[in-house]
Amino acid sequence: MPKKVSYSIPLRRMWKMYKTWCKVKKSSDMRSFYRDARLFADSQPNPMVRQSEYLTLNFWRKDYNKEILHVWFEQKELRDFLRDDLPIKDMEGIKQYLKEEGEEQKTAAPELGKDLEWVRYDLALHIPYETDGYVFAFVILHDGTFALLYCGETGVGQLHESEYNEVKEKSDEYSVNLIKDFTLAVNLLAYMRCFPECVREGVPDTNNSNTYRYKDRSVQLGTSDKITETVKGAMRPHFRKGHFKRLSSSFYTHKRGQIIWVSETMVNAKSKTVEMSDNDSKVEDFKSE
Description:
Layout: H1 12-25, H2 30-42, H3 47-64, E1 69-73, H4 76-84, H5 91-101, E2 103-109, E3 114-126, E4 134-140, E5 146-152, E6 155-160, H6 161-168, H7 173-194, E7 199-201, E8 218-221, E9 228-229, E10 238-239, E11 242-246, E12 259-267, E13 269-275, H8 280-287
Parallel strand pairs: 1-3, 1-8
Antiparallel strand pairs: 2-3, 3-4, 4-5, 5-6, 7-8, 9-10, 11-12, 12-13
Helix pairs in contact: 2-3, 4-7
């Protein structure tokens, strides 16, 4: 029987706080816990810490209400590949996809005399053999710009597209890790849309499966053979270099709007190989969720 795999748990600290609170208060009322946790956040003298607590708590509330899709990576190496090895080549394509497929929301703006419309899409990541998972919220703001809210290994915060290039030029550890997490989030979304056949419903058989409450909004994410190649003697998958691209031209009558994988291969000179899902019906099913 295969050995069970332990997985990282997104928002682990906040879930632990909630379970401790339930024992002390002898209650499981989410609203009461949220109120107390909010008061705790308000009491933090450092504004950056206070903002971090607010963001983490709001992520946790969405998670409690089952509003976040949980993604369980079948291979840790896929996370490393999406985070460390793939440049973001089509930010505009990702933004357009989010506008079409994300959850539309409104915020009242009395000073403007209207509601501001924006789009949000939340994902949580479980990584094999690690402790702390990730939570990402992709947000298309009312002005059409893109921001990422995150809670992961590098901490908690947000990065707007206007800051991306500036942070990317920095070499300090925090900036480098922030760009890696931003890259992971964007490439993950593209990967799931490009290869929906790698997305399977449910939670893997793990040795910490009982520590996480909600499993009805969970999918397992496998590795597509279209981004790997066979290397003699290799024990782990060898990933190809490339990038994701969204087909936006009207030239693509049937494939327009689909995200494709463009890999670089070497045959006498550099050439490019385009890959997309083998299962168009699965693409449509995934887009309609």
